[in-house]
Amino acid sequence: MEHPFLTRCCDNTLNMRLILAILLFTATAQAQGFKSYIQYFTTGSYRNTEGDLIVKTNGQLYTVWGKFHNNLDDAAVADLAAKVSSDSGRNWTDLGVIQQNIGLQTTTSVSLIRISSTVVHLYFCVKNSNTDLRIYRKISSDDCVTWGSPTEVINDNGYMPALNNTVRKLASGRLIISIYFSANVGVIPPNYCMAYCWYSDNNGTSWTKSTPNLTRSIGVGYTEPSTVETSAGNLLMVIRNNSGFQHFSTSTNNGATWTAPVASTLTTTDSPAKIIKLSTGKLIAIHNPTGTGMTDPRNVLRLSGSTDNGATWVKIIDLEGYTAGYNFSYSSAVEYNDNLLLTYWEANSAAGKLAHKFASIPISTL
Question: Are β-strands 120-129 and 339-348 bridged in parallel, bridged antiparallel, or unpaired?
Fold first, then answer.
């Protein structure tokens, strides 16, 4: 016969193990962060990409992305849609379209930048053709509750996109936006893409172009650059190319002039990378690494870290590991409340659709 005390002990032990397992799972989940879908696949929403995210002064998360109309093509009609989260990104509330397409082809590729506690700028690309793409801006004076009319701010008389999440506000207060340019992106060569920046010292009222144009006459040239301020006035530009490694250029004068690009040790599969400097001083790169066994260049989305201003990089985690038929890219990154907040797109090749996705990762794990 089973002794009553032993039965109770076994029950208590089982309960304690269950409690410990729950606590361990909770701690592990908190340590690893979490992911959520901001916009998945709905009717008339087959591609949701090239977005950005900002933290409102009330702590809500606010994101804007390109919502394409029944077509995956880069030139397909797209509006800019927005959502907000009041629970750190676990759930999202639809705010609808905040900017309808105003291009002959598309309106997309979003950058959000805070100017003050209430003023936020929204920069985006308006594409009319392979020889005509311009940068526009909308301004909110009430912290993303309402938006003013779109205004053209930069036009280089050619095809000149800015990657999503690429407008920066430097320690000096200067605004800087990374650009790549081609006279005709449909004919390469001879119209190799080149990289450079535009900067403004009056909150975007007027803009000045950096020098020189950064060029590479291989593949399509240099495309989809972005920047990070490594210390006051010192910037690092990371540039997409097809060499297998991201190319870096540096500036010591707030982005006015740039050095000739050189190959870094950060691997790439000809896709864009973003670099953010954490409050710890560490640089974090969000990129698609090279590797074996991958059936597509963007199968893996990796976070790598550097403690020597980008000279060397060490893998931290794969935010998205290899999954056949899936690809992940075009990220945004912001640090808030000891977490790294990310958005990026997830492509499902079997479904032929792309989703706008969110991830939150504790800084302590990076």
Answer: unpaired
Q: How far is residue 224's CA from residue 54's CA, in Å, rounded to a whole number?
A: 21
3-state secondary structure of 22: helix
**11: its two tokens:** 């029950």
Cα distance between residue 217 and residue 21, in whole Å? 57
Count how many Cα atoms sit within 13 Å of the Cα of residue 71 in the half-sphere of its side chain: 10
Residue 193 CB-half CA count within 13 A: 24
**What is the Cα–Cα distance from 56 to 252, expressed in whole angstroms?**
31
The owner of tokens 């006051």 is: 232
How are strands ordered across the β-sheet holding 151-154?
A: 106-114, 120-129, 132-140, 151-154
CA distances in angstroms from 51 to 78, 113, 289, listed in the order given? 12, 13, 21
Tokens representing 134 are 């311009």
Residue with tokens 């792309």: 354
Q: 345: closest CA among 366, 326, 362? A: 326
Residues 6+ away with beta carbon under 8 Å from 172: 201, 232, 233, 254
What single DSSP character describes residue 197? E
Q: How far apart are CA 283 and CA 153, in angstroms?
A: 30
Q: Are 237 and 178 in contact (CB under 8 A)?
A: yes
Q: Are 240 and 223 in contact (CB under 8 A)?
A: yes
pLDDT by 10s per residue, the chain, length 366: 333 222 223 334 334 333 333 333 333 333 469 999 999 987 778 899 999 999 999 999 999 999 998 788 999 999 999 999 999 999 999 999 999 999 999 999 999 999 999 999 999 999 999 999 999 999 999 999 999 999 999 999 999 999 999 999 999 999 999 999 999 999 999 999 999 999 999 999 999 999 999 999 999 999 999 999 999 999 999 999 999 999 999 999 999 999 999 999 999 888 999 999 999 999 999 999 986 555 567 989 999 999 999 999 999 999 998 888 899 999 999 999 999 999 999 999 888 899 999 999 999 999
Classify each residue of 92-121 as buried b or exposed e, where b means 16 or more C-beta atoms within 10 Å of its C-beta. Answer: beeeeebbebebebbbbbbbbbbbeeeebb
Q: Using CA atoms, how far apart are residues 13 and 159, in angstroms rounded to an integer?
A: 68
Q: Coil, strand or helix: which one is 133? A: strand
